[in-house]
Amino acid sequence: MRQTPANLNALGQEFQIALSKADWTEALLLADKLIALLPENPSLAYNKGLVLKNLGRVPESLACFQATLDLAPDHHNAQFELAAALLESGQIEESARRFEDYLAAVPDDADASLNLGIALVQLGCAEAALPHLGYAQSRLGSAQALQWLATAKRDRGDLTAAEDLLAQLPADDANAQAARLKILTQGTKGRLALDTRQFRQH
After folding, report:
1. Whole-angstrom Cα distance, residue 171 to residue 183?
2. Helices 159-166 and 174-185, interaxial angle, to 10°?
3. Which sections of the protein are TPR repeats (predicted)?
4. 106 by DSSP, 3-state: which?
5. From CA 143, how far away is CA 141, in angstroms rounded?
6. Rounded to an integer, what distance in angstroms lies between the CA atom of residue 152 and that of residue 140?
7. Of 135, 193, 198, 199, whose CB neighbour count within 10 A is largest?
8. Average pLDDT over the chain, rounded to whole?
9. HSE-up of 111 (CA within 13 Å, CB side)?
10. pTM above 0.90, yes or no
11. What is the pLDDT of residues 82-134, one digit of tens each?
12. d(C-alpha 10, C-alpha 37), whole Å
């Protein structure tokens, strides 16, 4: 059946409704229909990547974000999402390279700085990660940024600084304290004086 502009408009509206309802399965079906009709549209490729990401199909989303960039090389959102998907998929070195390229164009993105810092720590480059993580922590003030900054400090041997940072985590947050324990006891330069009285029975 030949598609008219009205048909395309209706299909696009259905796609937007599915996105607004977070009906990712329906959104994926509609995205595929739209891309079949408009294969050179970078926005559709990008949105399909986001849908796949929300479906937990991160490796598949990589191809969509790359397709977006093939069509629109300066699509900054696709650059970010591709780098993030690479990080989540375990392609750490390529993710770091992509985040570096992205930050060259969007230098004040604290989330990208955080992700680049995380990638660099995982690559064993704690010293290089510090400025990115420090910036992310100053801008975001999140527990995640603080924990990765502390991890980088630990890995470069500044254990006192790592402990001081982790002391800022909420004492009544069990998850935060579990992260503190993990950071201070793991890694080649971790330390934590365990008091066995913490484990006494009441």
Report:
1. 16
2. 170
3. 42-75
4. coil
5. 7
6. 17
7. 135
8. 90
9. 6
10. no
11. 999 999 999 999 999 999 999 999 999 999 999 999 999 999 999 999 999 99
12. 13
Q: What one-character DSSP code corresponds to residue 74? A: T
Distance CA 106, CA 3 (A): 39
Tell me the two tokens of residue 105: 């164009």
The dihedral region occupied by 64, where left means phi > 0, alpha psi between -120 and 50, and beta the remainder, is alpha
In angstroms, what CA-CA distances link 79 with 68, 185, 197? 9, 35, 50
Angle formed at CA 48 by CA 42 and CA 85, multiple of 5 degrees: 95
CA 32 to each of CA 24, 25, 46, 78: distance values in angstroms, whole numbers, following the listed order: 12, 11, 12, 18
- Distances from the Cα of 190 to the Cα of 40, 45, 54, 152, 164, angstroms: 51, 44, 35, 11, 14
With beta carbons less than 8 A apart as the criterion, state whether 61 and 82 touch: no
User: Both tokens of residue 196?
Assistant: 């066995």
Amino acid identity at 91: Q
Tokens found for residue 5: 């502009």
Q: What's the rounded Cα separation, in Å, for the pair 184 and 164?
A: 11
Which residues have CB under 8 Å from 90's CB, separation 6+? none
Q: Which residue, 58, 57, 95, 60, is CA-closest to 79?
A: 95
Positive or negative torsion for Cα 68, 71, 77, 80: positive
Can you list the positions of beta strands (E) in 41-139?
Answer: none
